[in-house]
Design brief:
By secondary structure, this protein is an all-alpha fold. The protein is about 65% helix and about 0% strand. It is built from 7 helices and no strands. Helix 4 packs across helix 6. It is elongated. The two termini are about 20 Å apart.
C-alpha cells in the first residue's frame, strides 16, 4: 500500500472515484438519498476499521503507518449529510502497530504490567507505548485516549 493515495490524471483520487461508483450503484438500487448515504458511510467506516485492525497486527511500522494513512483517507471520503457543514478533517494519527495493539489493551481496565505480560513485552516498553499513544492522541488519561481513539475510528 502506498503512503499517499493514487491520484488519477483528472485530479481525483482512485478512492474518491470508487466511492462515487459505490454511491451511484447504491442510488440505482434505492431512490432514498439518506439511505444511500448511510450505506456508503457504513461501508467506508467498516473498510477503515479493517485497515486499522490490519495495521495493529503488522509488525512493520512503515506498513502500519501506510495502512493508517489509507484508513484516514477512507474516512475523509465519508459523505457529508445534506444541510450539514463538513467537519474538520480527522487528524492524521500515525500510531505504530505496537502502539495500536497497546491502545486496544488499554480498553481493558487492567494494570500496564498485565498488558505487558499478555503481549510478552517489558513493562517499560508498554509504558513507553502508552505515553506515545497519549501524546499522539492528545490525551492525558487512559479513558481519554480510548475515547479519542474511538472518535477517530481507531477502535
Amino acid at each position: 500500500m502506498s503512503a499517499a493515495p493514487y491520484t488519477q490524471p483528472n485530479g481525483h483520487s482512485r478512492g474518491a472515484g470508487r466511492v462515487s461508483v459505490l454511491h451511484g450503484w447504491l442510488r440505482s438500487l434505492s431512490q432514498e438519498a439518506p439511505e444511500v448515504d448511510t450505506a456508503v458511510t457504513t461501508c467506508l467506516v467498516w473498510v477503515a476499521g479493517v485497515l486499522v485492525e490490519i495495521a495493529g497486527d503488522v509488525a512493520d511500522a512503515r506498513s502500519a503507518g501506510a495502512l493508517m494513512h489509507e484508513a484516514s483517507a477512507v474516512l475523509a471520503s465519508v459523505p457529508t449529510p445534506p444541510g450539514r457543514a463538513p467537519g474538520p478533517p480527522p487528524l492524521p494519527v500515525a500510531l505504530t502497530g505496537r502502539q495500536l495493539a497497546v491502545l486496544r489493551q488499554l480498553q481493558r481496565e487492567v494494570p500496564l504490567r498485565h498488558i505487558a505480560d499478555g503481549m510478552y513485552l517489558s513493562y517499560n516498553t508498554v509504558k513507553s507505548h502508552t505515553h506515545a499513544v497519549y501524546r499522539k492522541l492528545g490525551a492525558s488519561s487512559r479513558a481519554e485516549a480510548v475515547d479519542r481513539a474511538r472518535e477517530l475510528g481507531l477502535m
